[in-house]
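Task card 7
Instruction: Convert sequence to structure tokens.
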Amino acid sequence: MSRLQYVFSEALRNMGRNALVVLGAVLAVFISLFLVFGTLMFGQIASENAAQWSDDVRVEAFLSDELRNIDQLQNEIAQWSDVDEVIYISKPEAVENAKEIFADNQAVLDLIAEDPAFIPASLRIRPSDLQAYDGIATRLEATPGVLEVISAGAAVNQLIALRDGLQVFSWALAIALGAAAIALIANTIHMAVYARREEIEIMKLVGASNWYVRVPFLLEGMLEGLIGALVAVAVGLGAYRLGFDQIQGSSRLIDLTLSADFLLQRSILIVLFGVVVGAVGSAISLTVHRYIRT
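Output:
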């Protein structure tokens, strides 16, 4: 039997001897890395949507029919330091826009046809950054001739805040569970070494080096981390695919699309991290275990 075959066969045999403990360690790795993987995907989706919304969302100021100096008001707003662009939407343009938006709602279309004059003209303002939405809306509300101000900036800011808060919570939980996974893997290796303590002593008596004895146990921990990571990636991708199919087709507000490159890179990262978790757990156990330490 070659040395490589020996290492793998011993690692698999050790895992079989302590199947329940190994299962617990794999489960801990899976849960922690699934949370990390999910956080990475959600964070990317939230970032891309927030960036897209911030480019598309405008502050809309609906104007009174009595307002006569619209050009002057438009120029004044355009001079604000936190405004990039101001576009005037006339009443006829507003009516056509409303017809496009409510094309599937016959009741609204009938209302527009009956009295198109009720749809006001407006100024559509594009802020220079996300933080400017609230300030611009507040000033517009105090401007004479402005009937109502609508802004989705608050929703964008709430999405960013939700993303940041969820990322902090998920990472903290994942780190805690990762530490638990390392401890479980270390305990698994400790039990495997103890179960083979007599065999290890005999191997040392016939000249086996510490590394020759240690490598199968080190590989066992890495395999446990690898299995947990692979399951986390598989379940994470499956959950993403299911969520994409369920939500994307019924919602135009949220784009769940993630690039294949992003998913591949993060999947590889998760798998490598799982192997590292397993290696660290094994190394900790082998460093302190008295049967292998010397």
